[in-house]
Design goal:
The chain has 497 residues and is of the alpha+beta class. The chain is built from 14 helices and 27 strands. It folds into 3 domains: 281 residues, BirA Bifunctional Protein, domain 2, CATH 3.30.930; 92 residues, no CATH class; 108 residues, Rossmann fold (3-Layer(aba) Sandwich). Helix 2 packs across helix 10. The model has no long low-confidence stretch (mean pLDDT 94). The structure holds glycyl-adenosine-5'-phosphate. Glycyl-adenosine-5'-phosphate binds next to strand 14, strand 17, strand 20 and helix 10.
Length: 497
């Protein structure tokens, strides 16, 4: 993970936000290559979900339309969705260090012989760090003398005997309390409660409130989807693991509205498989993706009924061999539309044109993290290869690679730069392509390997004789000679495949 984070900074994928002032925890800036990678993933999602939506299980093309709504909405929206009252994590503080922790992310090591103190750790603490802390604080005991218990399973009356994660003293942890995860602001000049507004914690909230607008203004008929991509904000107490859990992030969400009498399970399975396939198509590998079913107690407040919730999980290096969430496929039943109808007093139902019957549609959602997708793609792409000068390369699928090709004259003389320039001018209209003329060719290949450019097109003396160039394929480093006129078509075909 350290190597990936350092490459991201060195090559301009991702920087810490406000780095020159020491950063701001949980916020990230995307650099010139990072924004290209993120936009490519975003555009491919939009294309496969909205422009050419998938073919449904019945062989008919689905209808999905897009929206782009405001980040700040009337707070009533978040009242109805349950976020004002229910979107919280149990948190506890350390009275000594003033640090705050999520209860469900902590584990306690309790002495098996009930003698002496127990010790609290983050759930992802590494074994050597646990051992070294126990060595210092546990008076001759080691890991095997303790049993591991999730902190939520420990009663507060036992806290006096627990040493918190960042202290040496027992009894400094406070009782867990619910802490709302929504970031808020005040609109206008006054800062009273009536001016309080929330930064959306998920993009789908305003999809529900626009449901009637979409039905009344476009020609969609149930079943259909509404999709949106955009920023969401959560006041995560422990933003962690680079861009994995941040306070500002992007989501790509789709709410699929169907008839409650439809075979919901069939649609749910369809979306699970369709979404997993999409991640495979843009470069994640099958053995690093799996489904995880939410247990009854893990279900979000809106997913308590119906066929449940599944996460598509990825094996991020910071958690391997375990997996963590990339996208959620949730059954939201009729929860949100019913809630909005009762709080707004506006009818949120749909009329069947054939039967004239009104009903509240049933909603399944696909909720993908765009920025988390960027992380998964970066992790997947990072490939160590000691045989090449860069020591590694980024194995991006050509469709998401920030730069599709680099045009490199072997030497900066003998008419080669002019040919390179001409090729560059003809290709730049069609794709993101680099023209790099100076430095020795090995260094230029190394740079392109590090940023994951799938193809390097080299102009050499032979090019001036017969109009052919070499195309070097990044992963195999194999070189192929083709005619200058064929370069664009060759690369376009590879991107599309
Ligand atoms: N509308 C449902 C919803 O928002 P979620 O499982 O809370 O569901 C969906 O979020 C996806 O958004 C997650 O699978 C993850 O990829 C991304 N996500 C959620 N919180 C995040 C955070 N703090 N930082 C980065 N990505 C996050």
């Amino acid at each position: 993970m350290k190597d990936i984070v350092s490459l991201c900074k060195r090559r301009g994928f991702i920087f810490q936000a406000s780095e020159i002032y020491g950063g701001v925890n949980g916020f990230w800036d995307y650099g010139p290559l990072g924004v290209e990678l993120k936009n490519n993933i975003r555009d491919l999602w939009w294309k496969t979900m909205v422009i050419t939506p998938p073919i449904g299980p019945d062989g008919k093309p689905l209808q999905i339309v897009g929206l782009d709504t405001a980040i700040i909405q009337n707070p009533q929206l978040w009242k109805a969705s349950g976020h004002i009252d229910g979107f919280s994590d149990p948190m506890l503080d350390c009275r000594e260090t003033k640090l705050r922790y999520r209860e469900d992310k902590l584990i306690a090591l309790k002495p098996k012989d009930s003698q002496g103190h127990g010790f609290v750790f983050h759930e992802d603490a590494e074994q050597p760090d646990i051992e070294s802390r126990l060595k210092k604080l546990a008076k001759g005991k080691s890991f095997i003398d303790f049993e591991t218990v999730p902190l939520p399973n420990i009663d507060y009356s036992e806290y006096s005997n627990l040493v918190g994660p960042d202290t040496k003293t027992a009894g400094t942890l406070t009782e867990p309390k619910e802490f709302n995860l929504m970031l808020h602001t005040y609109l206008g000049a006054a800062s009273g409660l009536e001016n309080k507004a929330y930064l959306r914690p998920e993009t789908c909230g305003s999809i529900f409130t626009n449901f009637k607008n979409v039905v009344d203004t476009s020609r969609v008929r149930i079943p259909f989807g509404i999709a949106q991509i955009g920023k969401s904000f959560r006041n995560e107490v422990t933003p962690r693991n680079f861009i994995f859990r941040s306070r500002e992030f992007e989501q790509m969400e789709m709410q699929f509205f169907c008839d409650p009498k439809d075979d919901i399970k069939n649609w749910f399975d369809f979306w699970k498989e369709t979404r997993k396939k999409w991640w495979l198509n843009i470069g994640l590998s099958e053995n690093k993706l799996h489904f995880h079913a939410h247990s009854e107690e893990d279900l979000a407040h809106y997913a308590k009924n119906g066929v449940g919730a599944f996460d598509i999980e990825y094996q991020y290096p910071f958690i391997a061999p375990n997996f963590d969430e990339l996208e959620g496929i949730h059954d939201r039943s009729q929860f949100d539309l019913t809630q909005h109808e009762s709080l707004s007093g506006k009818k949120m139902q749909y009329q069947d044109l054939q039967t004239n019957e009104w009903f509240t549609p049933y909603v399944l959602e696909t909720a993908a993290g765009l920025t988390r997708g960027v992380l998964a793609i970066l992790c997947e792409a990072y490939t160590v290869d000691e045989t090449r000068p860069s020591g590694m390369y980024m194995n991006f699928h050509p469709s998401v690679a920030p730069k599709k090709a680099a045009i490199l004259p072997l030497v900066a003389k003998d008419g080669q730069p002019e040919v390179a320039q001409k090729l560059y001018m003809s290709m730049r209209e069609h794709m993101n392509v680099d023209l790099d003329i100076k430095q020795n060719i090995g260094k230029r290949y190394a740079r392109q390997d590090e940023i994951g450019t799938p193809f390097c097109v080299t102009i050499d003396p032979k090019t001036l004789e017969d109009q052919t160039v070499t195309i070097r394929e990044r992963n195999t480093m194999a070189q192929e000679r083709i005619h200058l006129d064929k370069v664009l078509e060759y690369i376009q075909q590879k991107i599309a495949s």
